[in-house]
Amino acid sequence: MHTVTVVIFLGVLVSHTAARYTADWTSLDARPLPSWYDEAKVGIFIHWGVFSVPGFDSEWFWWHWQGQQPPDQKCVSYMSKNYPPGFSYPEFAPQFHAQFFNPEEWADIFKASGAKYVVLTAKHHEGFTNWGSPNSWNWNSVDNGPHRDLVGDLGEAVRNRSLHYGLYNSLYEWFHPLYLNDKKNQFKTQEFVLHKLLPELYNMVVRYRPELIWSDGDWEAPDTYWNSTQFLAWLYNDSPVKASDTIVTNDRWGAGCACKHGGYYNCQDKYTPGQLPKHKWEKCTSVDTFSWGYRRNMKMSELMNLSAIIEDLVHTVSMGGNYLLNVGPTPDGMIPAVFEERLRGVGDWLESNGEAIYASKPWRVQTENTTIPVWYTSKGLSVYAIMTAKPPKSTLQLLEPKTFTITKVTLLGNPTPLPWSPLHPNGGLTVLLPELPYTPAQAWTLRLDGIL
Fold first, then answer.
1. What is the mean pLDDT of residues 68-92?
2. Are 288 and 298 in contact (CB under 8 A)?
3. Alpha-carbon distance 331 to 58, whole Å?
4. Between the CA atoms of 20, 23, 24 and 26, what dihedral angle is there, to the nearest 10 degrees?
5. Are 256 and 224 within 8 A, CB to CB?
6. Considering only CA atoms, which of 322, 324, 320, 323 is closest in space to residue 276?
7. How much is the pLDDT for 245?
8. How far does CA 89 lie from the centroid of its chain?
9. CA distance 101 to 261
10. What value does the mean pLDDT of the chain take?
């Protein structure tokens, strides 16, 4: 008995030691991705900050107005026509009132959308933090604007609904003097990293314990400037979120890291691979096709409609990706009604078709297009064929599945087996479809059992 105890103890010790990661990409990239993330499939992204106040152009308004050379004349004209001479961007912050922000209502909408995780901008490139960062004096949501902890309040509401909570953090800040000085020194100094970025990141993790860190704003400097590998080693080995082993990260940790290093890959905004990637990935996209942040002048024609969102989601999941759909709240703290309508529409579709999405895996074939687009997913022994357009006839031909006498076909939402017949001796089938129920999503799912 004593020997067995020693062996077990040594086994635990070895496994604990093996689980420690060193501050290099070879070690960090070998960390297994926590399973919750791949199973979740659908998330909500929220871009909210001082940029929501001007509500013009995009969340990059400050840079387009006063950073880039030459400045964007649309932004210059907008300011000259609507604000007094000499008005500065930080003067927008007191107008970021968030007076109607109700985290419970937001979390209800996100839950109703069918999403399994939520990612909020804790800090965008403007540097304003949506929490009381001790490293961002008077440029945070507790000292200025809303005078409340937006990150903490939303996190509590989201977690109370059993949703995973993630935080977006921009590594760089457009106009921070320490960053600009490091940039001037060709990133051979690290004053910004050591005195602003890293203390703030450590504080954010310890205080809020996110399950996902969505890093961004990395591209101007290498990961060695940001000290990314040291931060990630601490995050995986010794941080408060290490104990649960649920922390997930993306791939934006320095110039050249995207699609190469980190947890899952974003590669680029609105990334859509042409074939099945070998590494777990995520597509982030926005309901407003022109902006991630709120725009006061957005038009209906500039928004993704529900059927486009569902087709994009299905395409992404069939290719092994997660789908992170963004909305931009108003500076008053409201999710625009048209965004809420889209999110609830996604949830309605997932309520009937989520079996083909959540915890699914890519099938051996991802898509086919005989008469209409069909996207495949799989789970266990079942394969799902998702139609993203209504078939012109009452029959549907599927070329890829190999059928047997035990093959069974059903329409999700209707347990009655559908009649089918073999198409060719070596595979394929023709399915006799029922009257497809109306859905604004314009997508329906067939479940195929007993096929190869």
1. 98
2. yes
3. 13
4. 10
5. no
6. 320
7. 86
8. 28
9. 36
10. 95
**Other C-beta atoms within 10 Å of 209: how many?**
18
Q: Which residues pair with 444 in a beta bridge?
A: 387
Q: In what order do the strands lie in the sheet with 164-170?
A: 248-249, 212-216, 164-170, 117-123, 42-46, 321-327, 281-286
Judge whether 193 and 225 are in contact, CB under 8 Å: yes
Of all residues in the chain, the percent with pLDDT exceeding 90 is 94
**What is the rounded distance in angstroms from the CA atom of residue 192 to the CA atom of residue 176?**
8
- Which H helix or E strand runs over 414? none
Helix axis angle for 198-208 and 150-159, nearest 10°, is 40
Q: How many CB atoms lie within 10 A of CB 79?
A: 19
Angstrom CA distances, 198 to 29, 92, 231, stand at 21, 27, 8
Taking alpha carbons only, the member of 392, 430, 394 closest to residue 409 is 430
Return the SS3 of 118.
Answer: strand
User: What are 327's strand-pairing partners?
Assistant: 46
Show Cβ contacts of residue 369 under 8 Å, excluding neighbours closer than 6 positions: none
Report the distance separating Cα 78 and Cα 85, nearest Å: 12
Across the strands, what pairs with 378? 361, 383
Residue 124: which of 93, 99, 155, 153 has the closest Cα? Answer: 93
List, in order, residues 6 or more apart from 244 with CB less than 8 Å away.
211
* Strand 382-387 to 373-379 pairing: antiparallel
- Token digits of residue 21: 């990661």
State residue 297 phi and psi, 5-degree precision: -105, 25
Answer whether 250's CB lies under 8 Å from 282's CB: yes
Cβ-contact 62, 126 below 8 angstroms: yes
* Residues ≥6 apart with Cβ < 8 Å to 322: 37, 38, 40, 41, 42, 43, 264, 280, 281, 282, 283, 316
Judged by DSSP in three states, 428 sits in strand
Selection from 112, 79, 97 nearest residue 334 by Cα = 97
171 vs 48: CA distance, rounded Å = 17
**CA Rg value for the chain:** 24
| pLDDT band with cut points at 50, 70 and 90 for residue 30 | very high
Whether 420 contacts 409, CB under 8 Å: yes
**pLDDT in the model for residue 327:** 98
